Amino acid sequence: MDAQKLLNLYAAGERDFIGAKLHQINLCGTDLRGANFAEADLSGADLSHANLSGCNFSRANLTDADISRANLSGANLSEVNLIGADLIRANLERTNLSRADLRGANLLLANLSSANLSEAEMSGADLSGANLKKANLIASNINEAEISGADLRKAIITEYEMSGRVLHIGLSHKWITWAGC
Q1: What domains does the chain contain, in order, with CATH numbers?
Q2: Taking 60 as the threshold, does the pLDDT of residue 160 lie above it?
């Protein structure tokens, strides 16, 4: 399906794009609030600056997608593949990213406040300067993730995996040090 057909269907009231083949589609700056992209292939897609709040992307493939500066607040991204995705300055507030694969994703300055990242795979992700206030990181893998300058105030962090290194996290003028196992 091409971008124009999808936008026409959306304008006509269609919201279900379950399993759609949208590889490398350009939806930059579009408003697709509340659409259902469960199990869709959006690998390599340009979703930058798009309003995707409340969308369902569960089990979708967003490998190498450009989602920078997009609004995904309240969206469902559970079990989504975001390997290598660009989420710079994306709004992921209250987003469900449980069991998401974020290996190598760029979340520089992203807003992940109150997001559910439980059991998420984030090894090698860049979370520098990200807002993780009140985020649920239970059983997530942040091994080798870059989180310098990330705000983790009131984040739920237990059962984390760090494998053998010391991690320093800045929390509003205070430093917390965790020793890896």
Answers
A1: 1-181 (2.160.20.80)
A2: no
